[in-house]
Write a structure and sequence with these properties.
Strand order of the largest sheet: 6-7-10-11-15-16
Oligomer: single chain
Shape: globular
Number of helices: 17
Number of domains: 2
Length: about 500
């Protein structure tokens, strides 16, 4: 909670109290999952947009802020679990650093500056954005001290009154008034109805151990399927053609399942665990041609997200991911609170026949999902990344490199990666791959029929991965991605 609240202040282009989050929390056994995903406002359906002349859901602005923000409810459920395990730190202490940086400021990061410059034209006229994020109409320079004292005040209220006031107290009424003033459809009734959920994680047993991830509405199923299918394939090393080709082909199979079935679990007619049965996994693996590329048609989804992992000296572990979807979310910054509201609901569709159509109180599909593994040697691993469609692919690459092929953890995160998917507006999917790979590998991929696009080294589209491992002796290893501002910290 301390890290999650602080990152919401100091990385405001990627995180906010106005987003959603998902948790895996373990004290040594099967993790507890927390689904803190907000649903579509009760007043919003296809006609809501069609009556306003839209043929698709706006990606920015007040009408893109169409779902409840679940993040604070996730913090509350995590705190409840902590209390059950004997945790005693008060919220005021957990929020202390976040409040300090909101009131006193922090240096603007390179990514905040770059994202502000790149998105300035589409965001500057959205309610609250310019007043909060711009200096004299432009992006604040890197290193400038940036403050959001309104957000610090809200965090202090939450610490004093309790987190539930965000949904069912005086703060909720103030937020609802703020949302209405900005023209957003989320109302006080929507906030009051929201609850985060404790859920049973999905799990799959691999040769080196058991891996856990979140159930729908996240794409956690796809992440587990990629690893499970790849575990069935014959791959000589993490530097080979077979390594990239095998994971890419496993990704295609996993995304087919995801795209056909994963949505709000209340609307699913299949149990996602069925796809994780060994017979199903073997069948999918048997259809992969290890010499030639199969067909692919997947749509890459942009996302600006933060993954955080923590393991303590007793082995209690958290894998956590929090997001406002696109950079700066909807772009709406609430006038009185300084909260940036997400645009996660823009993933939904106005097509009633779509897998994820927009309907009142429906949870949107989420690309974000944290991963946690219990390995046969007694180690615990938490790992994850931002990056929309790339998240399960990056998770698979990092896990496979470190756990299956024994690469040192930082080397596994730093190693060159790839992204299978369709860029915005492109007619087809392709395989973007960092040019740091051995040319023998990229040439072999091209010869196998992959539609390759070489990109520059350490490209940010490959995600911002991180991982922590605690082995059976209590030794810690940590890794942060050189593609981002993340770090490994220990105390």
């Amino acid at each position: 909670m301390a890290a999650a609240s602080t990152i919401s202040v100091v990385y405001p282009h990627m995180n906010s109290l106005g987003g959603d989050n998902f948790w895996l929390i373990s004290d040594g056994g099967v993790p507890i999952g927390i689904d803190a995903c907000g649903a579509v406002a009760s007043s919003v359906d296809r006609d809501f947009y069609r009556d306003k002349g839209f043929d698709s859901i706006p990606s920015r602005g007040p009408l893109a802020a169409n779902t409840v923000a679940g993040a604070v409810s996730g913090w509350q459920t995590a705190l409840d679990i902590s209390r059950e395990w004997g945790g005693t730190l008060p919220i005021s202490r957990l929020f202390e650093d976040a409040v300090y940086y909101a009131h006193n400021g922090f240096p603007v990061t390179v990514t905040q500056h770059v994202n502000t410059v790149q998105k300035l034209r589409e965001l500057k006229s959205i309610p609250g954005f310019a007043e909060t994020f711009l200096i004299e109409g432009g992006a604040p320079p890197v290193g400038m001290i940036f403050k959001n004292p309104r957000l610090g005040d809200i965090l202090e209220i939450l610490a004093k009154v309790g987190l539930d006031t965000f949904y069912r107290g005086e703060l909720a009424k103030a937020l609802a008034a703020d949302l209405a003033r900005a023209g957003c459809p989320v109302a006080i009734g929507d906030l009051m109805e929201h609850r985060s959920l404790r859920v049973t994680p999905l799990e799959v047993t691999l040769t080196p151990g058991t891996v856990y991830n979140m159930p729908p509405p996240t794409q956690g199923l796809a992440s587990l399927l990629i690893l499970a299918i790849f575990d069935q394939l014959d791959c000589p090393s993490a530097e080979s053609f077979e390594f990239v080709h095998g994971i890419v082909e496993a990704t295609k199979k996993a995304f087919q399942v995801r795209d056909e079935h994963v949505t709000d679990p209340a609307y699913m007619n299949v149990d996602p665990n069925e796809f994780l049965e060994q017979s199903m996994i073997r069948t999918m693996a048997s259809t992969i041609n290890m010499l030639n590329a199969g067909a692919s048609d997947t749509n890459s989804n942009a996302g600006d997200t933060v993954w955080l992992g923590v393991i303590d000296g007793q082995g209690r572990a958290v894998s956590f991911i929090q997001s406002i979807y696109w950079e700066f979310g909807s772009g709406v910054v609430l006038q009185d609170s300084g909260v940036v509201w997400q645009n996660r609901g823009t993933y939904l569709s106005l097509d009633a026949a779509a897998r994820n159509p927009i309907t009142p109180r429906r949870k949107p599909f989420h690309t974000i999902q944290p991963a946690l593994a219990r390995l046969n040697d007694g180690s615990t691993m938490v790992y994850g990344t931002m990056g929309g469609e790339g998240q399960p692919q990056t998770q698979a690459a990092v896990f496979a490199r470190h756990v299956m092929f024994g690469q040192e953890l930082q080397a596994a995160v730093t190693a060159p990666r790839w992204l299978l998917g369709r860029t915005w507006g492109a007619p087809k999917s392709n395989l973007r791959i960092e040019n740091r790979f051995n040319p023998m590998v990229t040439n072999a991929l091209a010869e196998a029929g992959h539609d390759l696009e070489l990109v520059e080294p350490f490209n940010e589209i490959m995600g911002h991965a991180g991982a922590i491992v605690r082995d059976q002796t209590g030794l810690f290893m940590g890794a942060a991605d050189p593609r981002c501002d993340g770090v490994v910290a220990a105390f």
